[in-house]
Amino acid sequence: NNKHEKLNYEKDRKELGSGEYRLSCFIWVINDNEEILLQQRLANAKKMPNMWGTTAGGARLGETSLDGAIRELSEELGINVTKEELEFIGSNKRINDYVEVWLCKKNVDLKELKLEPTEVQNAKWFSVKEFEEMLNNGTGINSGFEIFKMYYENFYNRHYEIIDGKPIAVKNEK
Asked: Distance between CA 149 and CA 139 in Å, rounded?
């Protein structure tokens, strides 16, 4: 509902009524090179064909967004993760869903992926800057990018130090 409380029933997003929202999960997989794993939608997809985006989907009845994130990674890319491998980084409310964004730091070999043939035609690693350019040129899907970018710029692989009496984000050394 509009207070982000579960209603304990499931509806298709097109069937949602006033005050009803879907719970969506976006998963950002990042490797040690600080690249994002993106997947390309099918050429014949009804929505956003051939576009690149992060793994995403809706939580099912009885699932938390964390459970949904784990399932979506497995279903769409064949990546198996545990709850401990995912970090919650933020949420936002859209027109008919609440989106919860998860981060997974994992080095994934592209050759090991098992792409869901009814949803995904390709997967590749991209830099954050490359993905931002894709969003600007219309080839990328904005899967909670603003939430991720704020997190990435302020917290990812950084720690805070007090410099001249102010907290300053400092990049961790590898």
From this structure: 18
Instruction: Using CB atoms within 10 Å of the CB of residue 100, give its burial: 0 to 12 exposed, 13 to 18 middle, 19+ buried.
Output: buried
Give the pLDDT confidence of 126-174 residue by residue, as tens digits: 998 999 999 999 999 887 677 777 777 766 666 667 778 776 767 777 6
In contact, 132 and 145? CB cutoff 8 Å? yes
Residue 59 DSSP symbol: P
- What is the rounded CA–CA span in Å between residue 72 and residue 2? 24
Q: What SS3 state is found at 125?
A: strand
Triad 91, 158, 35: Cα angle to 5°: 70
